[in-house]
Amino acid sequence: MAEWSNRRTLVVAAVVTLALAASVVTIQQDARRAIVGAIEESTAAAFYSLPDPLPKGKPGTVVRTQRIYSVPIGTTAWRIMYHSTDLFGADEIVSGTLITPMGPTPEGGRTIVSWAHPTTGAAARCAPSVGIDPFDLIEGMDAMLKAGFAVVATDYPGMGAAGPNAYLIGKTAGNSVLDAARAAHSIDTSTSTKVLLWGHSQGGQAVLFAAQDAGSYAPDLTVVAAAVAAPAIDLAVLLGDDINDVSGVTIGSYAFDAFATTYGPTVADARLDTILTPAAAAATPTMAKLCLFGQQAQLHTIARPLIGDFLASDPTKTEPWASLLAENTPGSTRLEMPLFVAQGDIDTLVRPASTAQFVDGECSIGSQVTFLRFAKTGHGLIALRAVRQLMTFFDDALAGRPQQTTC
Questions:
Q1: Which tens digits make up the pLDDT trace of 35-49?
Q2: Are 127 and 119 in contact (CB under 8 A)?
Q3: How far apart, in whole angstroms, are the C-alpha atoms of residue 198 and residue 114?
Q4: Pair 112, 192: CB distance under 8 Å
Q5: Residue 308 falls in which region: left (phi positive, over 0), alpha (psi -120 to 50) or beta
Q6: This prediction's pTM
Q7: Helix, strand or coil for residue 190?
Q8: Range name among 134-138, 149-153, 240-244 with the lowest pLDDT average
Q9: Checking DSSP bridges between strand 222-229 and strand 369-374, what pairing results, if any?
Q10: Domain 46-234+329-399 belongs to what topology?
Q11: Where are the chain's structural domains?
Q12: Residue 241 phi, psi dihedral angles, 5° rounding
């Protein structure tokens, strides 16, 4: 018994030692990434300066790349800058990131996951690729890298690389998601042209536009499946649900500034003063320059007095705003690939009823939808909590296996 007790003590001690060693290694790796990331962030400004004159290039053509060294061990990553087009067909330069796992290339090449991030702001400095950890907001990235996928993440037009605010301009954002995949394929020769689309909140809207336009806009890509978590879908409903709190005023400022910037030159009365109160119209351009992370206190200071005093009239009944909101709401086109939709049941930003109505609409036009509801889950956690089911959905789609369908 004494011998067994001693042996058990030695085993426990060895396990504890290994666990502590692993913890130390993890802490060291995290510290390394933070230090290198801080250095890269402080020296990255030159990367985002647009070339003058701007080079010409087809959508997806790479303008420049920059290696990122603050990466998880076993991966290679780049900041990327590439050509895309806006909803009017004009060329624009977009930035983002690309990360791929090391190791043997799978037969046929690595599948690309094109990720579309949730709201971080609308200004250039709010881009995820600009931060110390440009991969922090890629929900499910570790599982995707482990599965052998390459992951590319657009910043969206107007973020990172300078350009006009394009917040919730559906076709523009969707194009940038598809062109990010094109850029990834040209940068990393281990990738194939098979693409999986994945987005959360604002990114859900971008993915849905990318999915419905993929066949006509990017026929060189094979979009195998699309997936969204709590997507920003019916913009009129979303605005109505959220406008009476700080979050709604903030999102409204990003969106109305983008719509006025995008449509104002060509659409009569697409001006802030035709839909917002004088106080809101004056404050909105300032709010649109502030980021959701790091400048939240400033945003709240401006937004709080505008609660209940933001809209001058109902945008769903006021032209041209009613038509512009409808134009940027996805769901009018049958999807040619299976769609995964995840929704939390206590989400107070994207309401469950709105997402359920969207799914019903997709089913009615013949899309194949897998709709999963997650209990006790709000807006911020839904994408992370859906990763396990998402990976099964992606695996089945790539293997050609029948999907569980809600329709």
A1: 554 554 545 678 999
A2: no
A3: 6
A4: yes
A5: left
A6: 0.89
A7: coil
A8: 240-244
A9: unpaired
A10: Rossmann fold (3.40.50)
A11: 2-43, 46-234+329-399, 235-326
A12: -70, -35
